[in-house]
Amino acid sequence: MPVEDPSGADVVLAATIAAVRAEASVSELESLEVRHSRLPTAHFPSTRAHIDLIGSRVRKAQFHAARARAHANAAALIFMGGTEDHPGSPLEDLKRHAEQAEQAQVLASDLLEISLTLERREKSRSLRCR
């Protein structure tokens, strides 16, 4: 049976937006990794280590984005009534999945923000050294 509460659609939308944001963080991290791998210094050990670190963050962000997407999909399924025999309040289940999607999105976004902050710090340091 579909969720009757009109706020359920907003909850599903919030979960879906969280998943999209998490996926966008992954895309930005992947772009950052590609940019670094194309640097003339990409073969230097320090640059290679930095690229590997970004790659590690990409994989972690991909995991979080997949979790966010799974929770958004679960929320949509609950909203449409695809879990007939599921115990408990469907609206509460929706909210729980939306919260989980948001948490996963925050973790993916944090990985991106850490990488971008370190990039800015590196650029600032390299400008001061000139």
Write the layout of secondary structure elements.
Elements: H1 7-37, H2 45-79, H3 90-128
Helix pairs in contact: 1-2, 1-3, 2-3
Describe the protein in words.
- There is one protein chain.
- This protein is mainly α and 130 residues long.
- It has one domain (7-128).
- The protein contains three helices and no strands.
- Helix 1 (7-37) packs parallel to helix 3 and helix 2 (45-79) runs antiparallel to helix 3 (90-128).
- The longest helix is centred in the C-terminal third of the chain and has 39 residues, at 90-128.
- The protein starts with 6 loop residues before the first helix and ends with a helix.
- The model has no long low-confidence stretch (mean pLDDT 91).
Distance between the termini: 66 Å
User: Which structural class fits the helix and strand makeup?
Assistant: mainly alpha
**Overall morphology:** elongated
Q: Helical percent range?
A: over 70%
Q: Please identify the oligomeric state.
A: single chain
Round the mean pLDDT to the nearest integer and report it. 91
Strands, count: 0
Any idea how many domains? Answer: 1
Number of helices: 3
Low-confidence stretches: none
Strand-residue proportion: under 5%
